[in-house]
Amino acid sequence: MDTNRLRQFYVLSQTENLREAAHILGISHSGLSKSLKALQEELKEELFVQKGRGIQITEYGQRLAGKLPHFFEELKDLTHDKLEENQKNLRIGTFEVFSTYFLQKLSAFYEDYQIEMHEVLPGELERSLLNFKIDLGITYEPIPTKGIEYLKVTTLESGIFSANKDFKKMSFLEIPFATPKTPLDSIPTGVKGLDGWPEDKFPRFQKFRVDMLESGLQLAQASHCAVFIPKFIAKIRNNFITKEEYQLKEIPLPKGMRPIKHSVYLVKRSSQKEDAIFKKMAKILRELN
Predict the structure, then answer these.
(1) Cα-Cα-Cα-Cα dihedral sign, residues 282, 89, 232, 257
(2) Handedness of CA 112, 118, 123, 126 (dihedral sign)
(3) Region class of 212: left (phi > 0), else alpha (psi between -120 and 50), else beta
(4) What whole-number distance in Å separates Cα of residue 289 and Cα of residue 280?
(5) Taking the domain 84-149+268-286, which CATH number applies?
(6) Distances in whole angstroms, Cα of residue 283 to Cα of each of 105, 117, 139, 155, 190
(7) Which DSSP symbol is given to 195?
C-alpha cells in the first residue's frame, strides 16, 4: 500500500475539503482526487462521500484516520532506527527568530535526539505539521487550522536595538531600520512583517529589506540601522560580543507605543499527545525571559 496516499487521506480527514487538502499537500485538486480514488479501490471501502459542495468522511474513514498518526509515528521510528539505532529525529518547524537563536538552548535534547530545524512561515508551519513533515512547531503568529492545536507557553517582549548610540537622539521616523523582506499574509493579528512590528499604527523608515535576520543584525551591529527583535536575541547576541561599541543597545519605542509582547505557542497536530518532549520544550521557552 502506498503510504503517501494514506498521508493524503489523513490531511483530507483533517481539512474535510479537497481543495484545501490539495493546497496543503502541494498537488493539484485532480491529482489528489485520482490518488484517493485509487486508495479507496485498494481498500475496497469508501473513505468519504460528497455532501453539498464539500465532503464528509465515512465511519470507516474516521476509524482509519484515527489510527494513521500512530501508524506514521511507528513508520518514522522504524525508518530512523535503521539510521540511528540509539537516536531519534526531532523535527521542529519555526521561523528564523527561533531557528537561529533557540537551537543552542536545546542541549537537553542533544543526547537522545538528532535535531532538525525547518524554517517555515506561519501557515506553512501548520501545513507541514498536517503533512507530517515536522513533529512540532513554535510560533507567535498562529493561523487557526483544523486539526492543529496551539499551546501557549510564554510571552516574549520585543524591542528596538542598534549599536548606534546617536539613534537615541534622532526623531523616530529618521531612524533607519532593517526589516524582513518576506511579507506575511492572512495573519489574524494583521501584522504584515515577520518581526511583528505594527506597521499600520507606527510607520518606520525601512532603509534595508533583508531575507535573513542575521543580515539585519550585522547591519545593526555596524551602526547602519536598527532592528526590531525579541529581547532575548539581543541578550544572546551581546554575550558573544566583547567590544562594547558593537553591542546592541535598546532604543526607546516611539511616543505613544506600548511595549510589544508576543504570546509564544507550541504547535501540534490535534491527534498528538502532550508528551515529555512538549513539556521539556515549554520549559526551555519559558527560560528565554
Answers:
(1) negative
(2) negative
(3) beta
(4) 16
(5) 3.40.190.10
(6) 11, 18, 15, 12, 29
(7) T
Give per-residue pLDDT as tens, 83-108. 444 457 889 999 887 877 777 778 77
AA identity, residue 227? V
User: Quick check: helix, strand or coil at residue 189?
Assistant: coil
For 128-166, the pLDDT digits (tens) are 999 889 999 999 888 888 899 999 999 999 999 999 999
> For 3-82, CATH number?
1.10.10.10
Of the ranges 11-15, 110-114, 184-188, the best mean pLDDT one: 11-15
Domain 155-262 has CATH 3.40.190.10: yes
| Rounded Cα distance, 165 and 181, in Å | 25
pLDDT in tens, 235-270: 988 988 888 889 999 999 999 999 999 999 999 998
Q: Are 43 and 5 in contact (CB under 8 A)?
A: no
Q: Rounded to the nearest 5°, which phi and psi values hold at 143?
A: -110, 110
Q: Do domains 3-82 and 84-149+268-286 have the same CATH topology?
A: no
